[in-house]
């Protein structure tokens, strides 16, 4: 991934993830996300519709748009590689720091 895209995922930019419903229709959710070790990481709670959709069909699209310049954006299409539980809220805490500047 190029540096411009990594920068977009490292700032307070809103990210959207599209997953697929059972009937094949798209479902779009605004989320917080970051880039780490070659992956775009998105945090969601188990049982949410996007979580259920990804369990059934891992194909997704992720779009991020700069809060400062809406022409500075990118969309990535791919598949979810892994679902990792965040029981200790380590990733959620990282995102809170990134987006809210709070620990």
CATH architectural label: Roll
What is the name of the CATH class?
Mainly Beta
Secondary-structure-derived class: alpha+beta
Unreliable sequence segments: none
CATH overall fold name: Pnp Oxidase, Chain A
N-C termini distance: 28 Å
Q: Care to count the β-strands?
A: 6
Helix content: 25-40%
InterPro entries: F420-binding_dom_put (IPR019920), F420H2_bilvrd_red/Heme_oxyg (IPR052019), Pyridox_Oxase_N (IPR011576), Split_barrel_FMN-bd (IPR012349)
Domain Pyridoxamine 5'-phosphate oxidase N-terminal: 1-100
Pfam families: PNPOx_N
GO molecular function: coenzyme F420 binding; oxidoreductase activity, acting on the CH-CH group of donors
